[in-house]
User: Fold these one by one.
Assistant:
Number 1:
Amino acid sequence: MTMMAVKDIEARLTQAKCAICKKSRFGIDSRSVKEDGDWKAICIDCHYTFPVYADMEFYLQTQPDVKYRLRDIACPNCMKRDHSLNFRIVMSVRESIYFLTCNSCQHQFTEQSSLESFE
Ligand SMILES: [Zn+2]
Ligand SMILES: [Zn+2]
């Protein structure tokens, strides 16, 4: 299983906005960090917590549709469609965000998903 380090995920979370206060300062609750990859992030400003899913191998196995949807996403930097899904967060019931890295130019970007209703 390949999972990102906690500090790397914290650094990438600054690309998201808190569902409540719209700020972008988050930490991972270290007590929630377990091998299963279901972690908790907390907004430093308003203490809102939301789940972080670090185990994308398992996620893509159980959600095969996601792979097809990801193929439609182009890297905003080089426009190629060759990227890795690093982790995802569920900011609110309506907002889930994928964190991706382009395999071609190494650009890191996010993609909002509103298609989580099958979960
Ligand atoms: Zn907040
Ligand atoms: Zn790229």
Number 2:
Amino acid sequence: MLIDTFGRVATDLRVSLTDRCNLRCTYCMPEEGLQWLAKPDLLTDDEIVRLIRIAVTDLGVTEVRFTGGEPLLRPGLVGIVERCAALEPRPRMSLTTNGIGLKRTAAALKAAGLDRVNVSLDTLRPDVFKTLTRRDRHQDVLDGMAAARDAGLTPVKVNAVLMPGLNADEAPDLLGWAIAEGYELRFIEQMPLDAQHGWKRDGMITAGDILDSLRTRFTLTPEGSQERGSAPAERWVVDGGPHTVGVIASVTRPFCRACDRTRLTADGQVRTCLFATEETDLRATLRSDASDAEVAEIWKKAMWGKKAGSGLDDPSFLQPDRPMSAIGG
Ligand SMILES: C[S@@+](CC[C@H](N)C(=O)[O-])C[C@H]1O[C@@H](n2cnc3c(N)ncnc32)[C@H](O)[C@@H]1O
């Protein structure tokens, strides 16, 4: 089991399959892109499946989320999902994606054993999408989401980040649209994880701002008990139900105390947190012919050292060296 000194147990594994992306979201990376990882530094498909097998069979992981970069850019994705679906016990598997290319692969991913997807979409306006992502691919994302829904990769969750001066006014429109399409919308506060280090606390759109904006059109009531456990999103029932909306207040109301996550970068480093400043190299361990038991021990030791919180609310907070795209969002 992956337990830390605060008694938290990590059962949710985020696996980055690549640091590359086909969008250039302004809150994530610069227009020219980044220095991508070299191919020999990336874990191979076999190495990824081996680490997921160790996590699931020896370390108590029950949920696997594939992410990136853009995970649909990984050529072996469907095969990786298929091999992980054959593991005993079988983990629940999801994918966080920008949706570009999902129209082509949704049915194959479902057949391989993927359970569901989270698709990122910040705006309903194609011109704003182009400004925000620096690519003219709005319709591809909408098509990808619809294909995921039709393939049964449900519930399709939509992740939206609001940016001042760009899409900050779109919260009610996005919620109305998501309800009409049968998607579950979640807003994520913008975090200091951009490669350009341009994030500013002042002026960011907070969970409070988002809820105020939604309440101009909808009645929101807290879902269930106020305890959100390890779920990062606080959820509200919309207009009496059955639809809900989530808000992930990573900055203003972090959920570190109940965190159940462990992360693996595309180059095989274990991270205990998005904001961790240290990593543990599992790739070197794998490539030194270590046994599964040795790999598991190193992973456990890494998680034992997990810090109490992200440190975002501490004045001495330092942004990690790697941006979100290279960690795996
Ligand atoms: C880094 S992306 C990786 C997966 C995939 N490419 C996608 O678009 O979903 C995962 C999520 O992180 C979000 N994200 C990226 N940078 C962020 C930031 N600085 N603050 C908050 N969310 C961010 C994206 O909007 C997306 O929903």
